[in-house]
TrEMBL record:
Matches recorded under InterPro entries: Leu-rich_rpt, LRR_dom_sf, LRR_extensin-like_regulator, LRR_N_plant-typ
Name of protein: Cell wall hydroxyproline-rich glycoprotein
Source taxonomy: Eukaryota, Viridiplantae, Streptophyta, Embryophyta, Tracheophyta
Keywords associated with the record: Cell wall, Cell wall biogenesis/degradation, Glycoprotein, Hydroxylation, Leucine-rich repeat, Membrane, Repeat, Secreted, Signal
SUPFAM superfamilies: L domain-like (SSF52058)
Length: 625
């Protein structure tokens, strides 16, 4: 309790100083991460008899609802700020009436009601996740994106055995990759975007049966695991990190891959020829890296690619006609490389596909590099057959190691006590627009955030496939030094993106807002007969239409791929949901680009609000229910 009070005190201290603090540098973020890890627990396990021994005057119809009450009561106490009073009614025994909490009949026992989904998207809540959340054993959907949750993901998440969708994006979580999520057997949609996770991406991630994996805009610093090709995911986004090494040759095994985004990392080497096996890919964006060599001849195997961006790299040689004339190509951006020729049909034209060849070394073309800059690279051709990255194997020296994270001190598990209704948190006024991460701010990743707080519709027995869209990410290369603006993704629609005729903006310009809608995830989580209510928060400034999502230029935005995966087994037809969904909460105001980062301040324990508000797949889809 003492450490909790200390953390709370530090939050208030930070709030009083927030007007003078802005985006965080890597050093500041690392400092905050270490402090948070010192005060918040990760591996604290609750005793098996914790629920039965918990003392309360409330009576519950079953022990699972009692466990849910204990979990939500502990979570309410772990909240430091709730400016919109979203959790003001989180008290009392009727947990199914709590804002953002959805109940359904248990999959393994239709006679009892359980908490099946929680959606706190865009509630602007500050706090952390206590280990008691692991008592929500019937949870199939957990969406808490666009809040100010901090600290680490507790080990108790491994108890959420039927969790199907996990969206914790756009918060302030820290520490290593939360490997506890890899022990959740039915998890299909994993969204960790816009946090401060660091260290290596575990190879075990690609051995799981995820439909969509979003890791962009964190601080990961490893190579891409060699078993990348083992994942059945249709969407993989790792943009805006600090990844190094090469693209593994195993990428050619990703037969169902629809979107692959690696924008703005430190990747290098030649592209593996196995990329030509990606026949279903519609978005392929590796811009803003250090790739070298000539384009593999197999690139013409991308039969369904619509948006292809290889800009801001060090490719050389000739741009081949068979790539420029791919049948479904809408936009091919190969600007800012060292190509010294392009075959017929590759010069930009007014009709589709939109081609961008600026800032290369192509004779008789406008806006090319100076000859001395070209000669410096072209005079030293790379032989991809001998290059150590030619086959995607990571170079021995390119695996940066992050210093070990300090161990998390154990806190005493609170002894069960008589719960007391918590008064609604004080309503803090928003005097300034939330601020977003700065670090080497990302070129916008079109990773669409999902819809905001849409309450789930009633669920009526046998399940037709539900299209719970995991947000696709279509990211344009450019701006690396400014925070992503708020993204309000519209409901999925199917219209093509406008062709982009201009080269990606320079790396130091502010990134365009990210607003690509989430791609429909055709992983039918069970019987949901009514589609999720549309979210009416149009993205600023460009309104990108939905899936296949082709988001508007600057860079190249592409359609979100449908993620196909089988729903978790449904053991009994679920009856209609008995608890009315909460009202739709409108997203926070657009974020104004913050001024340059201020120097680290003493005793600051929580980062400023990085307000990219965007939602995640709508809560209505409760897999298996």
């Amino acid at each position: 309790m003492a450490s909790g009070g200390f953390l709370l005190l530090s939050l208030f201290l930070f709030s009083s100083l927030s007007s003078s603090s802005y985006a965080l540098s890597d050093v500041e973020a690392s400092f905050i991460a270490r402090r948070q890890l010192m005060h918040l627990t990760e591996n604290e396990d609750l005793p098996d008899n914790y629920v039965s021994n918990y003392k309360t005057n409330f009576k519950f119809s079953n022990s699972r609802l009692k466990g849910a009450y204990i979990a939500l009561e502990a979570w309410k106490k772990a909240i430091y700020s709730d400016p919109s009073n979203f959790t003001s009614n989180w008290s009392g025994q009727d947990v199914c009436s709590y804002n953002g909490v959805f109940c359904e009949k248990a999959l393994d026992d239709p006679k009892i009601e359980v908490v099946a989904g929680i959606d706190l998207n865009n509630a602007d809540i500050a706090g952390y996740i206590p280990p008691e959340v692991g008592l929500l054993v019937d949870l199939a959907l957990l969406h808490i994106n666009s809040n100010r949750f901090c600290g680490i993901i507790p080990h108790s998440f491994s108890n959420l055995k039927i969790l199907y969708e996990l969206d914790i994006s756009n918060n302030r979580f820290v520490g290593r990759f939360p490997e506890t999520v890899l022990s959740i057997p039915d998890l299909k949609f994993l969204d960790l975007r816009f946090n401060d996770f660091e260290g290596e991406i575990p190879s075990e991630l690609f051995e799981k049966s995820f439909d969509a994996i979003f890791l962009n805009n964190n601080r990961f610093t490893s190579t891409i695991p060699h078993n990348l090709g083992s994942t059945p995911a249709t969407v993989v986004v790792m943009a805006n990190n600090n990844l190094s090494g090469c693209v593994p040759a195993s990428i050619g095994n990703m037969k169902s891959l629809n979107e692959f985004i690696l924008i703005n990392n430190n990747l290098m080497g030649c592209l593996p020829t196995e990329i030509g096996n990606l026949e279903k890919v519609s978005v392929f964006d590796i811009s803003n890296n250090n790739f070298v060599g000539v384009l593999p001849k197999t690139l013409n195997g991308l039969k369904n690619v619509e948006h292809l961006s290889i800009s801001h790299n060090k490719f050389t040689g000739i741009v081949p006609r068979n790539v420029c004339s791919l049948p479904h190509l809408v936009n091919f951006t190969f600007s800012d490389n060292y190509f010294n020729g392009e075959e017929e049909g590759c010069a930009p034209q007014k009709k589709e596909p939109a081609l961008d060849d600026e800032n290369n070394c192509i004779p008789d073309r406008p806006k090319q590099k100076q000859s001395n800059a070209c000669n410096e690279v072209i005079s030293k051709p790379v032989d991809c057959s001998k290059d150590k990255c030619g086959h995607g194997s990571p170079p021995s020296s390119s695996s940066p190691k992050t210093p070990p994270t300090p161990p998390t001190p154990k806190q005493e598990t609170p002894t069960p006590q008589q719960p007391k209704p918590t008064p609604p948190p004080e309503d803090y006024s928003h005097e300034e627009a939330p601020k977003h991460h700065e670090r080497s701010p990302p070129p916008p990743v079109h990773s669409p955030p999902p819809p905001v707080h849409s309450p789930p519709p009633p669920v009526h027995s046998p399940p037709p496939p539900v299209h719970s869209p995991p947000p696709p990410v279509h990211s344009p290369p450019p701006p690396v030094h400014s925070p992503p603006p708020p993204v309000h993704s519209p409901p999925p629609v199917h219209s093509p993106p406008p062709p982009v005729h201009s080269p990606p903006p320079p790396v130091h310009s502010p990134p365009p807002p990210v607003h690509s809608p989430p791609p429909p995830v055709h992983s039918p989580p069970p019987p949901v007969h009514s589609p999720p209510p549309p979210v009416h928060s149009p993205p600023p400034p460009v309104h990108s239409p939905p899936p296949p999502v082709h988001s508007p230029p600057p860079p190249v935005h592409s359609p979100p791929p449908p993620v196909h995966s089988p729903p978790p087994p449904v053991h009994s037809p679920p009856p209609p949901v008995h608890s009315p969904p909460p009202p739709v909460h409108s997203p926070p105001p657009p974020v104004q680009p913050p001024p340059p980062a201020s120097p680290p301040m003493e005793d600051v324990f929580l980062p400023p609000h990085f307000g990219s508000s965007y939602a995640s797949p709508p809560p209505p889809i409760i897999a298996g229910y």
